[in-house]
Write a structure and sequence with these properties.
alpha/beta, Arc Repressor Mutant, subunit A, 58% helix, Rossmann fold, 287 residues
């Protein structure tokens, strides 16, 4: 897999090569069908440097690299239905609604199409063998981190923690992180500065880092063991989170279905919940 090879090599690349790699990872559906001259102008990199980049990945030249990239991406190529905010505001309400719905549908479709099943399987197996689970998110993403954290609490018997807020808020939690633990980091533009600190702690302690983000421009992209890319294009707000929410849902269901013990754990949770409501009804006479 060409894109996977680029991602694996990214941490050790020179600044120019990293610039090329990040651009390719962020524009993976268009770069394979762009000429080397056009690509060089877009990145402001010479064609000779692009050739050397391809050779660094084991290719004889840029064209052989481009052919492999085309083959990998061809089946995933999807049209991007973008519309400017100013244009959206001039549309009749019914057309505006259709545009908004179509955009979210495209985000969801492209996010799920980009999902690599082997990555999902690796993450599930690693979670099952982990000692503890940590979920990190900052800004608005902290709310989605708490959704994922709640799902872990409902389906797993191991300890799970949320890493969020200021450094003083989360440092007491993060200090517990060790080599046998897994941290899920959710981050989207504008990327918070705290994610760099969190990722550094995880890697220094030789733990596992799974990253949910939108782009190779994410500052900690090269540090992640697995990156799950979510398409977040929004017609109005900064980010769309429809893809992220769906991925959380799919991942937790796959994790739940991977073990009968986890199914029993969830059923036990429902039984405790029903018992609680039954007691409340008996005490109060109503919900």
């Amino acid at each position: 897999m060409v894109l996977e090879k680029i991602k694996d090599a990214l941490p050790g690349m020179s600044p120019n090569f990293r610039k090329i790699a990040s651009y390719i990872l962020d524009h993976e559906t268009s770069v394979p069908f762009t000429s080397i001259h056009t690509l060089g102008k877009s990145i402001q990199i010479s064609t000779a440097t692009l050739v050397r980049f391809a050779q660094s990945l084991g290719y004889s030249g840029y064209q052989s690299f481009k052919r492999d990239l085309q083959e990998e991406i061809r089946q995933r190529l999807q049209p991007d239905d973008k519309v400017s905010l100013s244009k959206l505001g001039t549309l009749p309400e019914d057309k505006r609604l259709r545009k908004l719905i179509r955009n979210e549908h495209n985000n969801l479709r492209r996010t799920l199409n980009n999902l690599k099943l082997e990555d999902l399987g690796t993450m599930i197996q690693r979670v099952k063998s982990a000692r503890r689970i940590f979920v990190a998110g900052f800004g608005i993403t902290q709310h989605f981190a708490r959704v994922l954290h709640a799902a872990f609490l409902a389906t797993q018997e191991m300890d799970a923690y949320v890493v969020s807020g200021s450094v003083s808020d989360y440092s007491t939690v993060l200090k517990r992180f060790g080599a046998e633990d897994v941290l899920f980091l959710l981050t989207f533009p504008p990327y918070s500065a705290e994610i760099t600190h969190v990722a550094r702690v995880v890697k220094e302690r030789k733990g596992t880092l799974y990253l949910f983000t939108d782009s190779a421009a994410c500052p900690v992209y090269p540090e992640a063991d697995i990156v799950v890319k979510c398409v977040t294009h929004s017609l109005v707000m900064t980010n769309s989170f429809v893809g992220l929410v769906s991925l959380i849902h799919v991942f937790m269901h796959m994790l739940l279905l991977s073990s009968e013990d986890k199914v029993k754990n969830v059923r036990d949770g429902f039984e405790i919940e029903r018992m609680g409501y039954s007691i409340l009804r008996g005490k109060e006479g109503r919900l």
